[in-house]
Amino acid sequence: MADKKQGGLGDELFGSRLGELRDATGPVKGEFVPPPDVSGKDEIAEALPEQEEFWRPPARFGSVPVEATPLGWDSRRGYHKLYPQVMLPTQVVERVSFGHPELEPNRLFWGDNLHVMRQLPSQSIDLIYIDPPFFSGRQYNVIFGDQNELRSFIDIWEGGLSGYLIWLNSRLYEMKRLLKKTGSIYVHCDWHASHYIKCEMDKLFGYENFRNQIAWKRATPIGGKVKSKMMPRDYDSILYYVKTNQASYRNEYLPYSKEYLTTYFKHTDKDGRIYRIQALGDYSEESREKFRQQGRIYKSRDGKEALIQYLDESKGVLLDDIWVDIIGMQHKAFQKQSSKEKIAITRAGVLPTVQYGGR
Ligand SMILES: C[S@@+](CC[C@H](N)C(=O)[O-])C[C@H]1O[C@@H](n2cnc3c(N)ncnc32)[C@H](O)[C@@H]1O
Description:
alpha+beta, Rossmann fold, 3 domains, five-stranded mixed beta sheet, four-stranded antiparallel beta sheet, 16 strands, 22% helix, 21% strand, binds S-adenosylmethionine
């Protein structure tokens, strides 16, 4: 699947219109750039995926009682059948960069991201983080910032869950097209639809390209939650997929907590260096020998060997897929200092390009 070409109208536009905009005489900051006229343009044949390659459950699954194609997919016209092409203007801004030499930097796209993405070229993006509506069945009205700006969006879906999944699938399909072979995608959701989104993403991105379901703890239970006759639902899920197995990933580390340090780093050597004793686990005999030569092996009275790990050489706790250390998202302090996007970006270690209503 990785080598199959998934093209889109964005590739064609990219060669013409976006190229023109790169002139020195191009639009200035604040200016709106009108979209090109694509009426009468046919679908590009390559934009259609080879569906039989999309959904390949592992052999141990046997025959899976689900549709082979993602919901809403038309075998001839893909998602263009339900959602025809619409071209949107862009605005020239500061501070936005795609980090991709061929793409115009400092351009903020306003509008429905399906139509925006269709204007972008294939395989041009390293990382996508999205925070879409969660299928919560609610309408959100949030007064935001000092100027009391009202931000609202409706998370109620005609056609119920399948209507929502079709809407999301058409966008995930474009996101997959935009990702480089080394790229990855993080989809923020919660219990309302996470399991169903996972099934659809398996069909779109491939079951084998799933990497993590990150549990992001939201807030300490209060008020009504205590009386809800069930365990409080206190985490969001972020589904992390890669485009191919060539995807890049960098380990991230969190600082040790005070408790961790006092529990584990309990020893100090003659030079004043703080260290802990760690089991050798699955280190090979070769590595063990190297540790012995470096004086890094601690021998207990019964002759058992362990590894000496110095605090000043330790990177911290390897970031795993359970995030409990972030101040509550609903908390004012969180909203002032941060956003879900910023945190997800920092932890994924690269810059994203496609967001949903991000700040
Ligand atoms: C869960 S909220 C994300 C809020 C944002 N991440 C934050 O932390 O403030 C979902 C957002 O997606 C936006 N949205 C809904 N449909 C969209 C679409 N088709 N294209 C772009 N944004 C969309 C909504 O307006 C809403 O702001």
